[in-house]
Amino acid sequence: MCLVEIKPPPNQRALMLDVVEWDAKAGEYRPMQKPKLQPACQMPAVENQEVLSESSKHVLEARAHVQEFLLLNHPVDCPICDQAGECKLQDYWLEHQTTAKRMRDEPIHKPKAVVFGPTIVYDAERCVMCTRCIRFMDEVAQDPVLDMRERGNLNEITVAPGRELDGHYTFMTEHVCPVGALTTKDFRFKARVWFLKSAKSVCQGCATGCNSYVDFDPRYNKVQRYRPRDNEAVNKYWMCDEGMLSYRAAHEGRVLDARVGTKKTSVDTAVVEAKKRLSDVPSSSIAIVFSAQHSLEDNWAMRELAKQLGATSLYVSGAASGYADKILIDADKNSNTAGVLELVPNPKSFAQLLDDVRGGRVSHVVALGGLSPKNDPEDATALGMLGTLVVIAAHEGALTEAAHILLPATSWVEASGTYVNRQGFHQVADKALEPQGASRPAWEHARLIGRALGLEVSWTKLKDIRNSLTGGAPQAVTPHDTHDANDATTSVST
Ligand code: SF4
Ligand code: SF4
To answer: What protein family is recorded (predicted)?
Structure first.
């Protein structure tokens, strides 16, 4: 598909091919000559050379013929293929061929629905043998588990004997596959891509903060998948498997209603209850817990609340550390640890909070985020000793379980928020879904609590917070915030 016609400099001879061409008038073939096309990427450029890529009829014909060959044995199962709507074969057929299939023979049949491993399924008939999946596993994932077997039209991709396609980057083989040969078990037969909208997002799986697209179905307010969003400075073009599946947190384990004790209630009632429990408590007994899983804006509102309350016992919570590698994955499983540290340079740890509760130094806590580093029964006992625990959270966890008052916060896909990754880049995750249940941004809950307690609350909108954070300057973003090729087809502004 990359053949071009090259007209050499005047003192050199063009490479020509002897061919025969059908002369319809004379009713016979005639000997002819035509330029020998060359693969563009293989030819060094020289002065006065002319390269024809679009204006040569020979090039256009060659592309159409190559495209026809590519589709010779390709099953026409676009109506049931997951890649339909974002398939390069469909795009190239429209761009370079647009003729109906001429071959009337039975196409070559090859294995279908081959399970390559826990996440990926392979359809050899759809494969165009571009070897991108092989090269990805070898060069990026550093695990050469895929290879090619047989020759010609019997070629197929195979997994190394005794192995399966597993590890931390298997989803990326599907991402690089230009056709529907590799599909993920997670997304297979789940949605037609033309019904999905996309929002720019940031993976919440770890401190790397890989840039992503959230693909969601606006008809059901439901996220269907993540796709990597190119950013040379952060994640290049990739995401890890754990991250690719972490879109599920948009719907799983969510806090969707306000609660007082174990009873569901309205946000207003919960705020009134919080006011009752926090009024007249000495500020030295109140602690504020920040969340490394919530946005910079949410944490900023908590810091303002702490200032107004006069609370100086400041802690940070979040998910426990985990697996790390040298490719993308960070051991810190929180998306905004660096953001919290920007706002509160030396917060105490969650373990210290539990110690302070046990020691009676802290009796009232307003916490952002439901997760704690470990779900230890002893932690629950310590949290149970608190006089008041008000939690604003998007996800259930040890803190929400122990909460006396729980306020439902929007997750990263339901409200625009800034997350600071391990490199210190401020990255914005756009709003994709409408807030689910009774959830609203955590900074709004912090404002409601502040107002109820009669404190001076300076923010009513997200814009107010961002102005305070940046002093009115535009929100800082990563240096290479780019769009990938799929952007134009599926992206919407939200
Ligand atoms: S990336 Fe897809 S089309 Fe290319 S060789 Fe692998 S399975 Fe085949
Ligand atoms: S490396 Fe971290 S941020 Fe990137 S996709 Fe994986 S979990 Fe998400």
So the answer is: Belongs to the complex I 75 kDa subunit family.
